[in-house]
Design the sequence.
């Protein structure tokens, strides 16, 4: 069985405060995009997870491996499976690749092993693997609050093209949150206006209300990310933002031709460039 494991971008990402349990209270609007890894499930007596990407571990430290073990523990099923991950989503890029792979694994095993898990049960298992994993059980456009696991589905966002540009560096989400001083955030994203724009299918509004407080850390630390974002704007994107903790920057375009033109003009600042779209 082959399943697509899609990436996400953040249309908004706000951090409200640091909770007593040490986690950050967030409010973010996540958008699934078409860029995807392929995950192949094959029958096998043992549990094997294989990924040829140089920065993704094989075996037990891969999030997919952890997902299989957790599903087995939660359901009492004791079967093997061989899983191969074909990576297309840049790694450690703010696009949720590992989280998506883990959620796709839960969805895949539910189907392959006839587990009969419902969405809530799968989201709950996903939540034990990471804050961004539950979003990918249903994908689409969702508001995520709490630590990121409290999800509300928003109606489907209007069709927009996405230019994704990843500079040649990897960013650790944990480090970015550690370096964020919440008191210094002067510009919180306008989540409620973004929600209205999505509900009203207002493409211009969506491009206007993009906002991510983690830019404060990553754009400050890596000037290339800032230059890349400015270049995407200058070249005529309707809006641009860093996704998640970065370093990937995206531009939104109403026209496909504009997205292609920007992608071609970005030059050596970005190591990888994709033109994709909202799911
Ligand atoms: P997020 O937006 O959820 O923080 P990300 O885009 O920043 O995700 P990932 O691509 O998920 O980052 O990779 C983060 C780390 O997880 C990498 O260091 C990678 O080695 C590790 N990892 C473990 N399993 C996987 C997997 N299946 N795919 C990608 N990375 C994985």
Sequence:
């Amino acid at each position: 069985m082959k399943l697509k494991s899609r990436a996400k971008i953040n249309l908004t990402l706000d951090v409200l405060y640091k909770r007593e349990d040490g986690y950050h209270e967030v409010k973010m609007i996540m958008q699934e995009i078409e860029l995807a890894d392929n995950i192949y499930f094959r029958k096998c007596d043992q549990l094997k997870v294989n990924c040829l990407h140089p920065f993704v571990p094989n075996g037990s430290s891969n999030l997919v491996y952890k997902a299989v073990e957790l599903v087995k523990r939660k359901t009492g099923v004791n079967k093997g499976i061989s899983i191969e991950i074909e990576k297309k989503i840049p790694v450690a890029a703010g696009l949720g690749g590992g989280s998506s792979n883990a959620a796709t694994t839960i969805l895949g095993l539910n189907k392959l092993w006839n587990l009969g898990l419902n969405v809530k049960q799968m989201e709950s298992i996903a939540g034990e693997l990471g804050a961004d994993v539950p979003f990918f059980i249903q994908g689409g456009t969702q508001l995520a609050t709490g630590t990121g696991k409290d999800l509300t589905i928003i109606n489907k966002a209007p069709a927009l093209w996405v230019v994704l540009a990843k500079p040649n560096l990897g960013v650790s989400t944990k480090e970015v949150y550690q370096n964020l001083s919440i008191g210094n955030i002067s510009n919180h994203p306008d989540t409620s206006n973004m929600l209205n724009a999505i509900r009203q299918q207002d493409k211009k509004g969506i491009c206007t209300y993009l906002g991510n407080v983690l830019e404060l850390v990553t754009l400050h630390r890596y000037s290339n990310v800032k230059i890349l974002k400015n270049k995407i704007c200058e070249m005529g994107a309707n809006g641009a933002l860093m996704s998640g903790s970065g370093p990937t920057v995206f531009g939104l375009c109403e026209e496909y031709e504009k997205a292609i033109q920007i992608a071609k003009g970005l030059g050596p600042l970005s190591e990888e460039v994709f033109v994709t779209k909202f799911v």
The chain is about 35% helix and 30% strand.
